[in-house]
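Subject: sequence -> structure tokens, single chain

Hey, anyone have a minute? Need the predicted structure for the following. Not urgent.
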Amino acid sequence: MPINAEYRGPADLPKVIPVFPLPGALLLPRGQMPLNIFEPRYLQMVDDAFRDGHRLIGMIQPDVTHSQSNERPALFKVGCVGRITQLAESGDGRYILELTGVARFRILDEKTVLTPYRQCQVDFSPFLDDFIARKGEEEVDRKALLEALTQFLKANQLKVDWDGIESAPNEALVNALAMMSPYGPAEKQALLEAPNLKTRAEILIAVTEMDLAKKQTSGDPPLQ
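Reply:
Had a minute. Here:
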């Protein structure tokens, strides 16, 4: 989805951003993520993002393997910031919004703040290619990706809009499939931290093939 704000590089983004820890949530540049916001602290985060004018939220996964507190879990070091591009009020106190991914970031430091939500000082400079739309598309093995997708759909008795898939550019296809994939936090983090689009596609293919092989061996039922 095109967005009104133009982000040409790290200088166009704030150095401190609010972060929303959410396990299994994967946002990638130019991808769209729907969110149902109902906790008071995150409702305030959305209000503050609009009041401050930047409309940015950093999506990041909790690192449960290194956490000592469920209330304030440790965070993975890499996340992705998104801009709120759609918002609706539900009528029962919730916000239904959509984030459009801008760029990945690395956490430098978590700030001590008075807000009920967490804020981090971040660095976007390791991910300069995120600011270039469709960077590295020509290196993606689209045929192998679609073959893995076909096998996954067949094994899980699922159907998709093949016309939409066939017409999607490689960046949109790889990132959408990665974001929608049903894998765990570790796999999602690996997809997020992939250095380029080609590697992300290769990780997605490998994880899918391992998942299919595991299900064939164990006899697990298909996804419902």
